[in-house]
From TrEMBL:
It holds the Pfam family PROPPIN. The keyword Repeat applies. Belongs to the WD repeat PROPPIN family. Residues 197-231 are annotated as: Disordered. SMART domains: WD40 (SM00320). The keyword NAD does not apply. Gene3D superfamilies: YVTN repeat-like/Quinoprotein amine dehydrogenase. It comes from Coemansia thaxteri. This is Phosphatidylinositol 3,5-bisphosphate-binding protein. Signal peptide: none annotated. One of its GO terms (cellular component) is cytoplasm. Keywords: Repeat, WD repeat. InterPro entries: PROPPIN, WD40/YVTN_repeat-like_dom_sf, WD40_repeat_dom_sf, WD40_rpt.
Length: 416
């Protein structure tokens, strides 16, 4: 998420504290590591315990987007900052073992978000979400039209056995849900083109690796036409539409999305920033309506815990809210020793007569980060802990009490 660039509201007063050299910050799929893009390169850190793992400095520009593939040596970049290292309309696949760019993908507009899976690259443009194969010579597999998506909202389930992708729908406030496992198989795609074309276009990925190095340091690339179609006629004929679930989640544009590790739940927030809604990814049924607050806010991140029983949400107000998603199930089981449930209004018994404000669930724990800056959050290695990455260049760890809801800051580190 782009936390490094100050974004002030109209009529706002003094500019908030931020690190000028910080362009981007993101966690990997299990929140065990995080990466930052800077005006001169990128850095990788272990989240908890906090430790810088590596850094790369470039003489000729900055990294505006970084995407990690778990803890592997493969990363994806897009240029950014005062002097971008790479064009902002290109995604560069980096192999840190050889310190080389091994593949590149070029688009007709600026890249707003990138996520990696073991066999796919997902790229977000302003009005498109594009799925490509993750290999030495990436190939275009699918392109989906979206509503205006300036924030680059998109999420993929982090579990190794799941592949649920979510991104904005064509209509404002709608969510599109795609099961990546239902997308066309790479071997099927290769069989559908001529042998000569298949040999020239791709090298099949090894199981569990997903990326093949090119010989002699060569790079694979392709371009995407304005209508989102692949440039190869054979490839265009081979790619078939996949089934999509669409959920009408909010009345205004989406600002943040998240998927549970097992892909069973999807969480969303709109640009209004007061409600977070959680849906069943298969049926589209509303499971929870969580209230962050009553005043407008920019939601910067939503994250599920590894066991999908909790959710944390961060905003531009420097606050992090933690919700309990197992409270309803625990109440139904009438367990005497369960974690604290989310707060609700005392007038919830009149929810059918009163506005939705009175029936929403409120966080059972929340805290405000130091300096009250914009931040993104993820759950730490300990069950009752949250790691926060802030726009002022700091990483912070907070622990929370499951029963009382109290929060304590465990440590505070400056990473830039």
């Amino acid at each position: 998420m782009n936390v490094g660039r100050p974004m002030l509201r109209a009529g706002s007063g003094a500019q908030e504290s931020y690190a000028p050299e910080l362009l981007y910050a993101t966690f990997n799929q299990d929140y065990g590591c995080f990466a930052i893009g800077t005006q001169t390169g990128f850095r990788i850190f272990n989240s908890d315990p906090y430790k810088e793992k590596m850094r790369r400095e470039f003489k000729d520009g900055g990294i505006g987007i970084v995407a990690m593939l778990y803890r592997s040596n493969y990363l994806a970049f897009a240029g950014g900052g005062r002097n971008p290292r790479f064009p902002p309309n290109k995604v560069m696949l980096w192999d840190d073992a050889s310190s080389k760019i091994i593949a590149e993908l070029e688009f007709r507009s600026d890249v707003l978000n990138v996520q990696l899976q073991r066999d796919r690259i997902v790229v977000v443009l302003r009005n498109k979400c594009i799925i490509c194969s993750l290999e030495a010579k990436p190939r275009h597999l699918h392109a989906f039209e979206t509503a205006d998506n300036d924030r680059g909202a998109m999420a993929i389930s982090g579990g190794s056995d799941s592949g649920i992708l979510v991104f904005p729908g064509r209509q404002k406030g709608h969510i599109q849900i795609v099961d990546l496992h239902s997308c066309i198989n790479l071997s099927t795609l290769q069989d559908s083109v001529s042998p000569a074309s298949a040999h020239a276009q791709a090298v099949p990925p090894q199981p569990g690796v997903g990326v093949q190095r090119t010989r002699s340091g060569s790079k694979g690339s392709f371009s995407v036409e304005p209508n989102g179609a692949p440039t190869s006629p054979q490839l265009a004929a081979a790619v078939h539409p996949t089934n999509i679930n669409i959920i009408a989640a909010h009345a205004t544009s989406l600002s943040a999305l998240a998927v549970s590790p097992d892909g069973a739940m999807v969480a969303s927030a709109s640009e209004k920033g007061t409600l977070i809604r959680i849906f069943d990814s298969m049926s589209g049924r509303l499971l929870h309506e969580l209230r962050r607050g009553v005043d407008r806010a920019d939601i910067y991140s939503i994250a599920f815990s590894p066991d999908s029983t909790r959710l944390c949400v961060s905003s531009d107000k420097g606050t992090v809210h933690i919700f309990n998603l197992e409270a309803k199930q625990a109440a139904a089981q009438q367990s005497a020793a369960v974690a604290a449930g989310n707060r609700q209004s005392n007038l919830k018994f009149m929810k059918d007569l009163l506005p939705k404000y009175f029936s929403s669930e409120w966080s059972f724990a929340h805290f405000r980060v130091a300096n009250e800056v914009r931040c993104i959050c993820g759950f730490g290695s300990e069950r009752n802990s949250v790691i926060v990455l802030c726009a002022d260049g700091t990483a912070q760890k907070y622990s929370f009490d499951s029963y009382r809801g109290s929060c304590v800051r465990e440590w505070y580190r400056k990473f830039i």
